[in-house]
Amino acid sequence: MQDVVAAVLITTGTVFFIAGTVGLLRFPDIFCRLHALTKADGLGLALIALGVAFLAATPGAVFRIVLIWFFVAAASATCGHLVARYARRSGAGVRHD
Amino acid sequence: MTPDLIYGLTGVAVFGIGLVGALSAQDRLRRVLALKLCSVGAGFLLVVGAWREPPAAPDPVPHALVITGIVVMVSATAVALALIRRLQTLEATDER
Amino acid sequence: MSVEISPMILSVFVPLFGAIAAFVLPRAAALIGFATLVLTSGAVAWLARDVLAAGAVGLPLGGWGAPLGIDLRADGLSVAMLALTSVVGFLVSIAALDSLKGPEQARQRQYFWPLWLLLLTGMNGVYLSTDIFNLYVMIEVIALAAVGLTVLSGSRAALQAGLDYMYASIFGALLFLMGVGFVYLQLGRLDFAGLTGAAPTGALIAALALIFVGLALKTALFPLHFWLPAAHANATAPASALLSGLVVKAALYVVLRLAQYMPFPSENLLTLVGLMGAGAVIWGGVQALRAERLKLLVAWSTVAQIGLIFVAFARAGEVGLSESWKAAALLILAHGIAKAAMFLAAGRIKDEIGHDVIRDLDRTPIRPTLAQFTFALAAISLIGLPPSLGFIGKWSLMEGAMAAGYWHWVGVTMAGTLLSVAYFSRVFAGFLRFDRVRAPVGEHQGWALADAAPLTLALMAIGLGLLAAPVLSFIEIGYPFGVAP
Amino acid sequence: MTDPLVIFDLLLALAIVALAAASLSVRDLFSMIVLFIIFGLLSALAWVRLSAPDVALAEAAIGTGVTGALLLKTLHHLRFASGTLGQKAAYGVTPVAPVPMAVIMTNAVFCGLITLGLVVAFLGAPAAGPGFDPLVAEAMPQSGVEHPVTGVLLNFRSYDTLMEVVVLLAAVVAVWQIERGLSEAPAPAMGEVWQGFARLALPAIVVVGTYLLWVGAEAPGGAFQGGAVLAAVGLLLLLTRAYVPQPAHRGIARGAFVLGTAAFALVALLVASGGRVAFEYPLDHAKTLILLIEGMVTISIAVTLAALFHGREPVALAKGDRNDT
């Protein structure tokens, strides 16, 4: 049962990642790309972390997964912010055509 | 097809790519990166050599060697990059 | 509880502690450096006594023993290299004391000592090592310290040369590392004993090729010599003497040593090595003839001399490497001493005259006679005139080549000798001729302590030729290089 | 059908090779570094697949993390020095003539032949051939630690490891010798969000680094990985300008650089008594000594890597003084 739940969660998470990546490749400028990437990947990461947590053997492992999720989420949010900030300041981000 | 075969060929290929880069790159930074690729290729070869069909444990000695290689490479990279930065500073002030 | 220490471990650890102390206490760096060199030389002398008394000695570090652990081993050849390093290093340090004494060189002085002592650690480590991965780490210690010494002056030319040297060095080390990987794949061990007697399979041939090319890059064998002239010509004089006299010898020593252990697939490969050497002799000689600056000429002469050592090494013939390595070893020792003397003398000449343009050497009223005399003495050994050590090395090379009927190697050696006579004559002409701009009275420079070190080195290069027989029998101690005892 | 993981391996291998090629061929230097970082992380993943978690940790933390940071810092500096910092498409930094295609092709053919030779040699080598495993298995009980890689690094081949720390020391001495001065390129303004993240991450990094060091005795981890993670603390402090290196701090910094080497070498020498040789730790104290060495080495590695990132000796320079050798 746990395996099935985990598999579903991880598969869904992967779909979000793929969607985010497609957005990164297809969208026209930095802000749109960030929009696709951060949201989709944030959700994908959470789903995969949840799925892996179902497979984890000990509470300690679950705790570590939660920690990893927290820090990766915080780091990617910060990175997204930094990229957007740089793009806005330097004016490199928006495509004008 | 076992992982050691796949990744062994990967390692040799990465080494070869690094070789091309080290010989043809003109940009200083790119040449450093090419050398780093070569070192990752060499690391692959040793890690592959250490691999044993599970459940047998891998040979730990090459692992230790690769860790040493990684630390040595970061040291060499740092010195090369410091030289590059200093040269650029001198060149920029000479031009002004 | 008494600590029992072997002189082998001291030869590596004393310079290491010295480097640490010199880095932490920059104000006392010179003092620490000298104390370290004296102690290191003492350790090497102790080791030489042991080797003379007992033959080759070994030390299994950590008590594990090869192949799991790393063994140190000292035989005649390694002690000879250690002694060369100590003696040349000590004398170059004396010269460095003088040439780095100015107040504007405080910074150079502060960094010269830790870098040089780290270099010494690496070189002594190479000469005692019996494990190819350990050799890789040691040559990296040497590489980083040597690059640091190359760029000591901080000039743009030196930095550019240092960067090229760094690329060549890293690249060579990585080729070596890849070769180590192939050795492991085939043999599952990395000590010298494991290499002996292994059949030359594909992986080992690849390893041999990678390791050889990597080392050829490090020792600047033609056509991989491109980095050397600029690096050695643009460094400050003591650094040049260390780089040209000692650092390239470390990689040469590894070639010499590994050639005894690694299986050679065919003699043709050895001929190829000899051809590369011959190319270096000719090309290095021609470039030295064309060089406009004295230090550049000396640097190109290093390229030619390294080629000659490889020719000596390659004229194996029927007897194999068992004879030819001795000629190569003698030439390594001779070149190490004479080239250090020559670079120091060239540095003195440049300091006194203010430039080192060969064409204008005779246009200055200042005549640094002692440095010029030293330069000429060193040139005698490098050209290979009797009774110098260089002569003995060349003689042993030609004798072996003639005995084996390899007249082409004799021809290359002769051509190299003639070229060296020609390019050194360009310098001598500048020393001797007064006719172009006749200064009223050539101002002869007095005797300076700074000239003592290069002069001693040059005299050694000549005088050791008279002691060639004991030197030769010393480097044969522990031969054939077998398993660590 | 074959193991589904083989497909994963093949895809990963393809991605690694493609990223290596892409990072060398992409024109923009920033993209080059980013592609290299992804390449490094995927290589680390491949090494996990080859059951080498220690190597993967080291490659991710040092080979990719620290190296990537060094490269990015250098690129920033180069763009600042060459005046192309604000430009949109600052491709190269040093103005170099583009390499003629013919040269690249010649090199590629040449290197292709070499690579082909290496492939043949690799395929000819015995798969899972002889190794050190039986020797290590036999010696492990006497090593003082439970994790084999730590046993090799700090006991069986500790001489290599000592020299590796020496290489790191030589690097920092050389870097300090090459560059000096307080600061040249302006630090990028990062904003409050970044500062907040740094405050959040700092304690976590310290905990993770110390944990990696501690766990090294029985599980993947150890001094080098722990030291690299702790070096990230230094990087964060330097980037947020929470710590600005001062000339007065050089003494302490020098002490920290040499601490690991000195402690390691001293222990190695001092254990040589009572019939033991250098590096032969007495069995009863082996674990304590190894942990002591690892602790000191970790401090040195962390400080040294951070100093390599900072990249210059903090000396106050007089105005216009660029070459005070």
Automatic annotation (TrEMBL), chain B:
Keywords, sorted A to Z: Membrane, Transmembrane, Transmembrane helix
Top-rank lineage group of the source organism: Bacteria
InterPro entries: NUOK/Mnh_C1-like
Glycoprotein as UniProt keyword: no
A single Gene Ontology CC term: membrane
Pfam families named among the record's database cross-references: Oxidored_q2
Compartments in which it is found: Membrane
Protein topology in the membrane: Multi-pass membrane protein
Transmembrane portions of the chain: 6-25, 32-51, 63-84
Name of the protein in question: Na+/H+ antiporter subunit C
Origin species: Roseinatronobacter bogoriensis subsp. barguzinensis
From TrEMBL, chain C:
Coiled coil: none
GO molecular function terms noted in the UniProt entry: NADH dehydrogenase (ubiquinone) activity
Family: Belongs to the CPA3 antiporters (TC 2.A.63) subunit D family.
Listed name of the protein: Oxidoreductase
Function comment: NDH-1 shuttles electrons from NADH, via FMN and iron-sulfur (Fe-S) centers, to quinones in the respiratory chain. The immediate electron acceptor for the enzyme in this species is believed to be ubiquinone. Couples the redox reaction to proton translocation (for every two electrons transferred, four hydrogen ions are translocated across the cytoplasmic membrane), and thus conserves the redox energy in a proton gradient.
Transmembrane helix as UniProt keyword: yes
Residues in NADH:quinone oxidoreductase/Mrp antiporter transmembrane domain copies: 129-419
Record's keyword annotation contains Ion transport: no
Transmembrane spans: 12-39, 51-70, 76-99, 111-129, 135-153, 165-185, 205-228, 268-289, 296-316, 328-349, 370-389, 409-432, 452-475
Bilayer disposition of the protein: Multi-pass membrane protein
Single GO biological process annotation from the record: ATP synthesis coupled electron transport
Keywords: Cell membrane, Membrane, Transmembrane, Transmembrane helix
Gene source species: Roseinatronobacter bogoriensis subsp. barguzinensis
GO cellular component: plasma membrane
Pfam families: Proton_antipo_M
Subcellular location: Cell membrane; Membrane
From TrEMBL, chain D:
InterPro entries referenced in this protein's UniProt entry, alphabetically: CPA3_antiporter_subunitB (IPR050622), MnhB (IPR007182), MrpA_C/MbhD (IPR025383)
GO cellular component, one term: plasma membrane
Main localization of the protein described in the UniProt heading: membrane
Residue intervals of the MrpA C-terminal/MbhD domain: 15-78
Compartment list: Cell membrane
Signal peptide positions on this chain: none
Pfam families to which the protein is assigned, alphabetical: MbhD, MnhB
Residue stretches spanning the membrane: 6-26, 33-50, 56-75, 96-125, 156-176, 197-217, 223-244, 256-277, 289-309
Membrane topology value: Multi-pass membrane protein
Keyword set, alphabetical order: Cell membrane, Membrane, Transmembrane, Transmembrane helix
Keyword Zinc: no
Residues of the Na+/H+ antiporter MnhB subunit-related protein domain: 197-292
Family: Belongs to the CPA3 antiporters (TC 2.A.63) subunit B family.
UniProt-recorded name of the protein: Sodium:proton antiporter
